[in-house]
Amino acid sequence: MPSPDSTSSQRAANRARVVRALRERGAQSRRELTEIGLSRSTVKSVVEELIDAGTVTEYADAKAARGTGRPPALVGLKGDLGVAVGVEIANGVVRAAVCDTAQQLLTHDSVPTDDHTPPQETLKTVGTLIDQMLDRLSLTRQEVIGVGIAVPGPIQRRTGLNGRATTLKPWVNVNAHVTAAEALRLPLLVDNDANFGALAELTWGAARGLRDVAYVYTASGIGVGFILNGSLYAGANGTAGELGHTTIDENGEVCECGGRGCLNTLANADSISQKLWRSHGDRLSIADVIKMAQLGDVGCRRVIADAGRHIGLAAANMYNLLDPELIILGGNLAPAGDILLGPLRESMARRAIHAGEVLPPFVVGELSEHVVVVLGAAAAVLRDADAFPLPGRPSLSGRTSTTVRARRP
Ligand SMILES: [Zn+2]
Predict the structure, then answer these.
(1) How many other β-carbons are positioned within 10 Å of the β-carbon of residue 280?
(2) Which family is it part of (predicted)?
(3) Fold matches, 83-197+370-383 and 208-364
(4) Where are the domains of the chain?
(5) What's the gap in Å between 190 CA and the centre of ligand 1?
(6) For 343-364, what is each residue's pLDDT tens digit?
(7) What is the pLDDT of residues 183-208, one digit of tens each?
């Protein structure tokens, strides 16, 4: 016979396991919850305890309700247990978002920045932005579970320093985690933008329910966030997914990483715009180029198609090595849609090994470039129960929240 103490500690451990699963995978059915290794009857009683304690609530499963009678209920964390903040420090802009524990986006905002600003100054801007958003939601810093911060480029796992390939030059060789922790005085984690983009599409978008996905994020450079076997894959040194620094032309231009003919020198936003200087002047942003291409400008369509072919070549090599079931395009080239994706898919199909299999779909992500990374940064905090415990019982009731509706039109 187990002692009453061991029984109650076992129940507490089971409650923690269920909460952890709900934080990692969002709302799910009781049957899905048995996949964490608990019996149906244990899941049922643990969920009842958590509902009584005000930690968990039932949500209707709209998808399962279609064509059936009564919708089976999903079980998920209540939204009032705390908030996670996501921040993206990018070239020219700082973005931020606040999500609650029910994975709802509460608010998001952005501030333009100068690429030459020292990290400490940029982080002051970030701190102000976070406080303004919390103010708008009538929340305090005590209710923040943690902050996820995205920086462009790889972060070396061993030293925590931003690598030299980081496109935001004042951040090269800076330990973003230490610097941000000192500036913000909030619990936080730091990762690169593409990894968070992948996590956002896994939580809310095109990668939901999938296990092997490559998320190609196009910003100042081109990076990939890999979900492999259901988890983010960063590599031994944290530099996995630097697709923008794979060689496309051995005799090409020298890249900021020191390499020659990297994908970034041929297909990132700056290199696309620069190809139009002679014909269109030097004031075109990548958004302008895409807009003009959609209106039929031949030169703009040509440079986007060329970029698509180069990305397709790099993507074929990536596919041959990792065999993802889906490849998602996000970031500032995503609005180009089929003008980019048509030549991209063709170029990829010419080079990818088929092995009798159909190539994985290469699709535009479901989350817009303005929120995908900050949502992923918040999701990283919500999912990490070890590093970011829920902050007790804050008084967050009475707020209104919106579902994540960041989808493209
Ligand atoms: Zn490079």
Answers:
(1) 17
(2) Belongs to the ROK (NagC/XylR) family.
(3) yes
(4) 4-77, 83-197+370-383, 208-364
(5) 22
(6) 999 999 999 887 666 888 999 9
(7) 999 999 999 999 999 999 999 999 99
**Distance from residue 162's CA to the centre of ligand 1 (Å):** 15
Task: Report how far ligand 1's centroid is from the alpha carbon of 248 (Å).
Answer: 10
At the top level of CATH, the class of 4-77 is mainly alpha
Distance 243 CA to ligand 1 centre (A): 9
Dist. CA 342 → ligand 1 center (Å)? 25
Separation of CA 221 and ligand 1 centre (Å): 9
Sign of CA dihedral 286, 122, 201, 263: positive
The CATH class of the 83-197+370-383 domain is alpha beta
Give the separation between CA 187 and CA 177, rounded to whole angstroms: 10
Cα 205 to ligand 1 centroid, rounded to whole Å: 29
Distance 117 CA to ligand 1 centre (A): 23
Distance CA(244)–CA(254), nearest Å, equals: 13
193 CA distance to ligand 1 centroid (A)?
Answer: 17
pLDDT(62) > 90: no
> How many angstroms separate the alpha carbon of residue 369 from the centre of ligand 1?
23
Distance from chain centroid for Cα 261: 28
Residue with tokens 């089971």: 14
pLDDT at 68: 57
| Pairing label, strands 93-100, 83-90 | antiparallel
Tokens 């968990």, located at residue: 56
> What average pLDDT does range 281-299 have in this prediction?
95
State the distance from the centre of ligand 1 to the C-alpha of 288, rounded, in angstroms: 25
289 Cα to the center of ligand 1, angstroms: 23
CATH number of the domain located at residue range(s) 208-364 in this protein = 3.30.420.40
